[in-house]
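Hey, quick one: can you model this chain's 3D structure?
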Amino acid sequence: MALAKAPRDGRPLAVMLLAIVLLLVYVLGVHWWFVAPHIGYYNDMAELREQQQRFARIAAERPMIEQKLAEVRTYEQGNQAFLADADANAASAGLIQRVKQAQTDHTDAKRCSIVSTQSYSGGEEELYKRITVQVRLRCDLESLADILYDLENGKPYLFVDQMMIYKQQTYVPPGGKAVVAPLDVRFNVSGYLRVPGKAAGA
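Sure thing. Here's the predicted structure for all 202 residues.
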């Protein structure tokens, strides 16, 4: 009886082995060489279609982008925040003239005088090229306040920093009244050219 059941018991095993063989044949002979490449091609085509759609959307927005860029260029050309000069030397001369004009507009030489002005090329690199002039004044406090207000609240935009103020000794002539000596004031006044600085390319 055991010998008669052996063929029936071996049939499922044979079917299983046949299925394994067919699976291996499919994987090694069909899927690996034909199906897998086509799946890769399909994925590549889907990615290319997505890129094409994205580029098409960008291309459709090109007129609007060009219009915005033209508006930005027009605004920048009319923007008075930057120094109007084309190079650093001219800008430095313009800053010095601006300081002299502020001194002339708000006081006189008796109350406030310009001791010296000179260009300064130090400092950290910034997004736009910074032009700085070192200024030294002998000035009373009221005149100094008017000059600084004029410099920092006009156009192009100017910035005052590195300020140092030294009080001079009061002078009393023989038999006379005390003479209040003007303050010794030193500061930097800076503006920006419409030119990218080295930091812009960093």
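One thing worth noting: The helical segments are 2-60, 62-78, 88-106, 141-152.
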